[in-house]
Design goal:
Blueprint: H1 2-23, E1 37-44, H2 57-65, E2 67-72, H3 82-91, E3 122-123, H4 127-137, H5 146-149, E4 154-157, H6 159-165, E5 171-172, E6 174-176, H7 184-187, E7 192-199, H8 205-224, E8 230-235, E9 247-252, E10 259-262, E11 271-273, H9 277-285, E12 300-302, H10 309-355, H11 369-383, H12 385-391, H13 403-424, H14 433-451, H15 477-495, H16 503-519, H17 527-543, H18 551-573, H19 582-592, H20 595-612, H21 614-630, H22 637-643, H23 645-664, H24 670-692, H25 755-760
Parallel strand pairs: 1-7, 1-8, 2-10, 2-11, 4-6, 4-7
Antiparallel strand pairs: 2-9, 3-5, 8-9, 10-12
Length: 761
Amino acid sequence: MLRRIAPILLTVLVVALGVTALAARPQSPPARPSADYVVLVGVAGLRWDDVDAERTPTLWRLAREGSIGSLSVRSAHRPTCPVDGWLTLGAGSFAAWPGNRGGDGQCAPVDVTVDQPDGIGANLPDQESVVLHNQERLPWGAVPGALSESVRCSVAVGPGAAVAAARPFGRVDRYAPTLPEEPAGLLGSCVLSIVDLGTVAGDDPAVRAAAAQSADAELARVLAGRPPRSLVIVAGVSDTERPSRLHVAVAHGPGWEEGWLTSPSTDRRGYLQLIDLAPTALAALGRPMPDRPFLGRPAESVGDRPADLSAAIAEPADADREAAAQREVAGGFFVVLAVVQVALAVAVLPLLRRARRHAGPYGPKPVPRAVVATVEVLLVAAALAIPAALVAEAAPWWRFAHPAASFAGLTAVLLAATTLLVRLAPGYRATLGPLGAVAGLTTLAVGLDVVTGARLQLNGVVGYSALEGGRYAGLGTVGLGVFVAAALLSAGWLAQRVRRGWRPTVMVIVGGAAVVVVGSPYLGADSIGAIALTAGVSVAAAISAGGWLTLTRLAWATMAGLALTVGFAVVDLGRDPAERGSLGRFLAALGDGTGGLTVQRSSAASFETLVDSPLTVLALAGALLVWFALLQPWGGLMRLFGIYPAMRAAMAGTAVAAVIGGLLGAAALDVAGAAAAVVVPMAALSALRVLDHSADRTRPGMDRPADGGPSGGGPGAPGPSGGGPGDAGPGDAGPGDAGPDGGVPDGGGSGGRSSAEVATG
């Protein structure tokens, strides 16, 4: 009885761990007014490499005394053109101006009409159509002018500032086309002022330096006329052309001295988003947020900034270079990975056909051992490619003259080193030896990175880019797929080494720890990934002791994922609207009738990812290899599953978690593709080794023949591609250790196995 209910009790434990991990979130202190006035100064295109002590002395002094950070200027369109950036600034959400794209996707000149009927304020006659465009045509539901609607009075200087300060019906409270000679009166007339200081554009260093110098001179006049107790925020509010870059963000005022800027929307020191500036201004003024919450969150200043400003500025400038290099390298890396893995899948097919040894004198000629050994090493290297690329981020490859070549060389060296480490490991000759080593190394690499702040994933080739604006901390899509696969394979490898009754416990212990790593906001910060992994761990625990993935067990795993979802949703909805996560915001949107926008946005993102991502090819190629080759009678995977049921459980749980994670996370097949990059090569290698011993008739406990028998090994020493005695778990073939239905040992699935197969694989 206890054996039957153990998986259920352990699944409940996983759900409890998941809810605890997801609910443990630090509460932000209540916002307190820190300024009587806020002055938002925007310079389109301004980057940190435009700032130095000689050309821009005012900005340099402001950065030295205030807080600095890298600004992601993502808007509803990419790239974020200047008018999009100003509109997003005023909306506090991803917005875009209609019709400002050229045929090549670059920013087209936009002539914003600003009428001044009374000489005090201004009016934007196109504003109502802009609001309708964002509300009805774009999936974010942004409200242009939401920032100005939240204060009684606002000032705009320049056409870009007018776009940001215009209320939804087009009115700008106070407006000046250029900065007056004595700006103090204008800037002090309202609690919120928005100033457009022009654009820094182009690739010519001399042109950029002149534009930055001109903006710096105007900034000096703004600071001379700033009201008392004011917060001044300087931001590079947009891109000016493709590709996107990270931009300048500086905050100067009471409480913002000599720190790093950060935001709960990024959870990363030194990073904030353009959509964070509107809530930051309102929080500083002590004003309530609008009825429809901003997508951004109020920024704050944190310490630990280097005392030397040059060293401090070098960090965001280096982050911009890294993000730009990542964009150039990532696509090529995944294309090469997909091509190599597909080629390996094709190469493995004839080996699988000829791997099964025949006991009689007739049959196909065996594949030479050297060929099999070479393919095995290549399969190990293919499975370790993504972890090696992740570890390569520890070295600053993007600083070299040829970043792509530097990354490729560094990754190749690391890949060769880790493959050699696996090859020389003591258990490599065992059937599951390479799988266990690869899974352990991958889990260690990704897990340590997440536990230590996910530095290697930020702007990493196999991580996520701050330029995309989707994630800035925690576990990315590729990292989730790789970590889920590696953690569950590690759990299966460990579970296979204990008696059958203890296998669900091992699965839950390892899988539950992985759920905490994935879901905790202090670590992976991926609630969707934690829900998906909970379902996968539940499946793995349910079938690790024997049996197959039945509809009942799949339904139970689904219920476990739903239980975690409901539990987290209840906790998340109980938080303040500004503190909610993505799940809580989505459920709240469903309640107020705006959830359709989120569904539309997720569907569009999933379709785009499905079509454009090389990981889709990896997922599909892996599925085809498994279904049409490995799971066939000659493919070896069914035999592997019969001998090692814990590995069957681990792979089934990985498939469930990867599919759910992609569907719920709007990542299409990216999670499954990343998981397949680890699982499929190891499944093929293990299947080859099991097939190699399919004709072994040596009884357990008996020595092999002196000549090594079919595998060419001595007593207790397997051949180059086989496993030796003791490779299977302690409980795999003991007396009376039958499957749940009294059939063949450990769940069956490989009818006609010899006792040596059960004992040695």
